[in-house]
Taste receptor type 2
Amino acid sequence: MYMNKVAIWVMTGLLATTTVFFNVYIFLMSIWNYRQKKKWSPSETIILALSVADVAHQLICYFWMTMDELDSKCLIDQRPYTVMLLLIYSLKFTIMWDTSFLTFYYSTKLVSTPNHCYTQIQDAILKHVTLAVCLIPLLGLGTCMPMLMVFKSDNITAANKDCGILTPTNNIGHVYEAMYLILSDMKASTNGAHRPKLGSQMRVIQMALSLVAVFILFLVIDLFVNYQISVNHENIIGLTFCFTSIYTTVTAMVLIYGKKTFWKALIHEFNVCLDEYPCLYCLKVPEQKAKPSTPEQVQT
């Protein structure tokens, strides 16, 4: 069992590297675009907030896992572990809702006949997109704070106990746990009732659908793992962090692909790096040239 924990820790470390790399790339490219345009589109604002949350979540997650490995007997005071777990849960809430906000935005941009009520909601939210992305992490933290009252910090897993695990102590705690999982996981925004605009970029449609597909897959896995932890007290919290790392890595890659300027810049830099090593020439990725005329564009 200990070797399994070490393997998960190592794998999560590798995934942490890719998560941080792709999300820092998104962050830097967003800043560069802002300096060029002197403004951010709603999608760029949401993507920027999502990339920051992904990096913060990944760093705290891996720091907790590293401390848990080093302090295998939980000799250090449990409060730092508990605070880190609280931040991890609140950042996960932020990631899920930022992703949902982004898919909601794209769903409104990729439909030809949205209903009137839906359009009014879209306009109201997009006028205050910056305020919304600032409120989401605060709501996430506020949603997780009751854990300190209805949960207890204990090490009740079957073997190789983890440090500072928060578990419900009574029926109220179990009800709160179910509500937290619903609020943090069960939120996907699509607008499948309407057909996409005829001139929409297929790349953007593929990105939006991929975000939803990845979200649903992660939702099923995450709910199952949390059920095993809560009900069967299995020692697999590290597995939840590993799956979350996979999710944040894949989501970042999908976002880079969907943002054509990000994708082209990444491919170009990748090929430039390979130019320094002729033996790796076969790994170069073809770069698409700009077309003289394009259909109606959807702002990403």
